[in-house]
Design brief:
Elements (H helix, E strand, L loop, with lengths): L10 H4 L19 H49 L1
Organism: Coptis chinensis
Protein name: CDP-diacylglycerol-glycerol-3-phosphate 3-phosphatidyltransferase
Amino acid sequence: MEKSNSYGASWADQWDYSNPDPVHTEDPNKKKSGTSNKYGKKVGEGFDKTKAVASTGMKKVKEGTTLGFNWVKEKYNKRNQKN
């Protein structure tokens, strides 16, 4: 009579690399439904909008950072010219 532990798999089963678990693959001949195509287009459109908004936001950040650095530079130069 074999004893089994409460975890279901023995230590040897958990660390057995000689027989790895099978890899799940999709059947390449299986047709995809039309609904995923419809949602794919919507996701693509949403991605394009998000990309445009992010690009605009980054341009604004870059401009603001440039203005900030120039302001600090001007203040520094004015202060050093007095001395």
